[in-house]
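Quick one: structure tokens for this chain, please?
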Amino acid sequence: MSQTTITMDELLEQNDVKPLQTGDVLEGVITSIKKHELWVDLGARGIGVVMRREIGHNQPLEVGQNVTVSVVDPELEDEGHALLSMRRAVKDRGWDELQRIFDEQEIVDILPYDANRGGLLVELEGIRGFLPVSQLSTANYPRVSGADRDEILQKLHALVDHSIRVRILDVSRKENKLIFSEKAAIKDDMQARLTDLKIGDEVEGVVTGVIDFGAFVNVDGIEGLIHISEISWERVEDPRDYLKVGETVKAKIIAIDKDRLSLSLKQMSEDPWLNEVKAFKKGTIVEGKVTRITPFGAFVQLSPAVEALVHVSEMSEGDAVDPEKLFQLNEKKQFKVLDIDPETRKIALSLKGAK
């Protein structure tokens, strides 16, 4: 009577059990835990070993526990068991889940674990990714003076271990790329809120950054800008003298451009120029203080809110006049009022006409 030798693969096929293939992800039960390895029962598909380096970090494990593993080698030569990886299994399933989240444009919560000057380092589903600074919302964007990289990094580190709602902007297992966006996660909600706003509305927001040309304000997640010319009715040399980061302000919307608001702080109060200018009449002699000197003339402050211009042609009877030799800053002189234009808020003065 002849005997036929049956291989393990043939035996598995006869019982409708597919032989292990490299890359297979399957469930197993821990049967033994040793110092450098972990043994897993794969049921009808045999047994396998997970080496310590392939277990992963801080994994609470015990005998009898169900685990997910990935097949690294279906059958080690002369060993009769498979080489497995728990770390790789997490990544294999992680990429599939990340692709699903991306395809369905799902919003998820992440906890950044570190930061660099470019953005936040993130891990989701066992895969490490990145949230660039440019993809942070108005509330979290690090507004700093100039381009102070150390200050940017400091503000980004403050976001580590804080939950942020994001969408996946790009995912590629082949390129090992995973990019997140907080902006994309709040875009729909922000657009809905923008439709409820209109020019002339008064809003409240928090100052997130003060720079040379104005201040950025977070208005319920929408970015607003108060230009230096809209901070005060008086001349503003440095916005930092008027606004501080973290300060809550009320402002009026003067323009809406896509996803940004243009705001005015000064229009929350009446223009004092309109009242103070009533004290001046055309043809009268007034006293004013020189505040700026330019090649074409000098600016003169007549009252706290009213500034006027003495054109170079009205300084002297002569043709060759140098305003810097004729005037000194903060010097007070007598001038004649030539014209007052309330619409343009301009007053023309004459030095020679006051003599």
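The chain has four domains: 22-91, 105-186, 197-268, 277-354.
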